[in-house]
Design goal:
It is a single chain. The chain has about 290 residues and is mostly helical. It folds into two domains: about 230 residues, Growth Hormone, Chain: A, CATH 1.20.1250; about 35 residues. The longest helix is centred in the C-terminal third of the chain and has 37 residues. It is elongated and about 110 Å long. The N and C termini lie far apart (about 70 Å). The N terminus is likely disordered.
């Protein structure tokens, strides 16, 4: 708590509370599940965010000597790394918590995902090999940015793109103490969010495949919009309270008049007490 207070003193208070951020991270997890389903099924079998799986496939393809698969794996891993670097640069001096710079970085992620959706739509859902690599690179870059946003959000050990660690922490905590399952509830909700996003993405791919990547963009955009609305509402509260504390000139004059009268009464009472004491002293001398 003392460390958090010191950070707030240095960087200022975050724009969003921990509870609000935790809920937004669940939606980001859903967008990650949706995007990964799209990439795995439509862009050569590689993930946008699961780098462990991409590295395993890349290692297999190194032995199989398949240039196309080698290119896909390299693009997915490289795009993610570029996204992490691009998201880290503007947030490295921002301090932990969801802040105004987080809005900007998340907006960049939304724009990239909109570009992926536009490219997929323009190709009619059948991009050629070079175009699919571009879409995969852009999707992986967006996932890298989201990972940085999550890490800098101020929620300890939170992830929305790679959730192996979350599952490990939940199971390990339950084994150590079954009564402390609530401590891992936040991680569990993000796991459910990821699964729900994957299911939703698969459904959209079946029903309206051209809209599949747009769903991920819409989910991240909803997070950004919600964060901006909450931030603006919180910033209005101090101005309203300060406006309520302000008084009209007439009220100020009345307060001054009452204060002067109170001072006058106190002076008269002190004078009366002084005169009474003087009379008592004279009586004693007599």
């Amino acid at each position: 708590m003392r460390g958090a207070g010191a950070q707030d003193a240095k960087f200022g208070h975050p724009d969003l509370s921990h509870r609000a951020v935790a809920r937004l991270l669940v939606v980001l997890s859903a967008s990650s599940g949706c995007l990964d389903v799209f990439c795995v099924t439509q862009l050569g079998g590689f993930f946008a965010s699961v780098i462990t799986g991409n590295l395993v496939q890349l290692g297999h393809n190194l032995v199989a000597v398949d240039p196309r698969l080698l290119s896909g794996g390299s693009v997915a891993v490289g795009g993610y790394a570029v996204g992490v670097a691009a998201g880290t640069l503007p947030l490295r001096h921002a301090g932990p918590g969801w802040r105004s710079r987080t809005h900007v970085v998340t907006a960049a992620q939304v724009l990239i995902l909109v570009g992926v959706a536009g490219g997929w739509w323009a190709s009619g859902g059948r991009p050629g090999y070079p175009a699919s690599l571009v879409l995969l690179f852009a999707a992986a870059t967006a996932s890298g940015i989201q990972s940085v946003v999550t890490i800098s959000s101020g929620i300890p050990h939170a992830t929305t793109t790679y959730l192996t660690g979350s599952l490990t922490s939940i199971v390990r905590g339950v084994v150590f103490d079954p009564h402390r399952f609530a401590a891992g509830a936040a991680g569990a909700t993000r796991l459910v969010g990821l699964l729900g996003g994957a299911v939703l993405g698969a459904v959209v791919l079946r029903v309206a495949p051209l809209w599949a990547p747009a769903l991920a963009a819409a989910l991240v955009a909803s997070v950004l919009g919600t964060a901006i609305i909450i931030t603006r509402s919180r910033r209005r509260l101090p101005s309203r309270s300060s406006g309520d504390d302000k008084q009209s000139p007439g009220e100020d004059e009345q307060q001054d008049h009452r204060k002067n009268r109170a001072d006058q009464h106190r002076a008269e009472a002190a004078k009366a007490i002084g005169e009474e004491d003087e009379h008592k002293r004279r009586g004693t001398h007599r």
